[in-house]
Design goal:
This protein has 14 helices and 27 strands. It is an alpha+beta fold and 465 residues long. The structure holds ligand EPZ.
């Protein structure tokens, strides 16, 4: 970490306009706003330990509320702001939740069984807070929850969460901007739930509510994401009865009570995939330690199709490639697991901007995950959006620029682009990135990148870490 005097108020890029097919942005940035600065053009090389999965961890933390007795200990949590916010929510509700070991371990005692309403100002910071619906309904028969927040990447409806809980006999209303669900007088009753789409969140909420219901619940067209499997395995470790996790048909047999347990969060396939993509975009050679090769296959197979190399040795995954200009193009359709993950669609787009030829990206999960595109265009990319399809024509170089992260993975996409670009890129609105990537700049520096997180200290010094 080092510091230098901060010219407070100096607008280094007073007004930058970016015109693209998808939006017309005016970007005004000041050096005294926290940002990430990247000197591009250095191939990533070396190894890093993959962090625990953000999306699994958020669901697992909500799942700890199901334990009617004992203490639940979660290990391998990522050190990111979404986790800190959800832990703060649990504590304000009256559960006893403590982070330790550099925020990688969480202990939760939820045995009290009656909880305060989750505070709206924290709930609205992330979509993951929606996962409180299922366990709170199961524990107390009634739940009121403010509208969750999260990345602005599409409509992100909640009808399937409603459908899942109604399928267990609950009533559901929206009252003064809050969801309100109530179980029948004798508690939730197992039932047959068909999800029109394999929603990750709706599968999780239905599974959690069903685990303490009377009787058997089947969830058809369930999400198969590894995060759903993690949550099901936690509930089983707590004494629950779940079968079929990881397939499209999950069966939950309700039990009267669940107990605390110890559980390890699975590695983050999206974090690992982002580093793998960045390695290929910079012509680098990295090893991801503690990675789940199978969970990464949809992205690794695309990278090898393009001419990059991948090798597995247990839970070490090495990814390397020659210069990005030597790769061949590919097209992506992001779809539910085991399809190509939507959460890597944006970083992968940055890679494709430098690959010869014309390639398409279609995100079949979200209709509005395009926040990165105006800024990639500003960096010199040649991108068109037609309906829900992004068409990328490869260019020979990207140039560093001042850009903004409009959402978490848009931010990751700009980091990949900045690492591969010529010159300096500064990424503003970094709070989006901090929601999901642990110590991003430190980890990238460990891989040889020139990348710093710039903050303003109390003494008006710019602190780079
Ligand atoms: C989870 O969101 C993740 N978030 C997302 O990660 C991820 O993109 C997504 O799953 C898909 O993998 C968390 O786990 C906190 P969905 P979730 O319900 O559960 C529609 C990231 O970058 N839908 O599977 O909200 C919805 O609009 C984030 O880390 C309904 O129509 O995703 C979307 O188009 C972003 N009705 C699609 O289904 C519903 O009731 C998939 O949503 C619910 C969802």
């Amino acid at each position: 970490m080092f510091s230098y005097p901060c010219p407070i108020g100096s607008n280094v890029s007073p007004s930058v306009s970016t015109n693209t097919q998808t939006s017309n942005l005016q970007t005004s940035v000041a050096i005294n706003e926290p940002h990430i600065v990247i000197e591009g053009g250095y191939p990533l090389s070396g190894s890093i330990q993959v962090a625990g999965s953000k999306n699994a961890a958020l669901a697992l933390i909500a799942g700890t509320l199901l334990a009617t007795s004992g203490v639940t200990v979660l290990h391998n949590l990522p050190n990111i702001t979404d986790i800190a916010d959800l832990v703060a929510i649990l504590n304000s509700m009256g559960a006893i939740a403590n982070l330790s070991q550099g925020n990688s371990t969480l202990t939760v005692d939820a045995s009290a069984g009656r909880f305060n309403e989750p505070p709206p100002h924290l709930v609205s910071r992330m979509r993951g807070s929606l996962q409180l619906l299922g366990p709170l309904l199961a524990r107390q028969g009634i739940v009121r929850l403010a509208m969750p927040g999260g990345c602005n990447i599409g409509a992100r409806a909640v009808d399937l969460h409603e459908k899942g809980l109604r399928g267990l006999g609950a009533t559901w209303t929206i009252d003064a901007g809050c969801f309100f669900a109530e179980a029948p007088f004798d508690g939730l009753i197992g039932g047959a739930v068909y999800l029109d789409k394999p929603s990750v969140g709706a599968t999780m909420n239905t599974m959690m509510a069903a685990s303490l219901a009377t009787g058997v619940t089947t969830i058809e067209n369930a999400a198969q994401e590894p995060d759903v499997v993690d949550l099901a395995n936690l509930i089983v470790a707590m004494g629950g009865l779940i079968e079929g996790q990881g397939t499209s048909r999950i069966t939950v047999t309700g039990v009267e009570s669940l107990h605390g347990c110890e559980f390890n969060v699975s590695p983050d396939r999206i974090e690992a995939g982002t580093y793998a993509i960045a390695a290929v975009a910079t012509g680098g050679d990295i090893t991801l330690i503690g990675a789940d090769f199978n969970a990464l296959s949809p992205v690794l197979s695309k990278l090898t199709d393009m001419g990059a190399h991948v090798a597995q040795d247990g839970n070490h995954v090495r990814v390397w490639s020659g210069p990005v200009q030597t790769l061949t193009g590919t097209s992506i359709v992001a779809s539910p697991h085991p399809g190509f993950p939507t959460d890597l669609q944006q970083p992968f787009t940055s890679l494709l901007t430098l690959v010869h030829g014309t390639n398409t990206i279609h995100d079949s999960v979200y209709e509005g995950r395009f926040g990165h595109i105006p800024y990639l265009t500003k960096m010199g990319a040649n991108i068109k959006v037609e309906g829900s399809v992004t068409i990328v024509s490869g260019v020979s170089t990207l140039s560093g620029a001042d850009v903004k992260a409009t959402d978490l993975r848009a931010g990751a996409a700009l980091v990949v682009a900045g690492l591969a670009a010529n010159g300096q890129t500064r990424i503003f609105d970094v709070h989006h990135i901090e929601r999901g990537y642990q110590e991003l700049c430190q980890r990238l520096r460990q891989l040889g990148a020139r990348c710093w997180h710039v903050n303003v200290s109390d003494t008006d010094m710019l602190v780079m870490e």
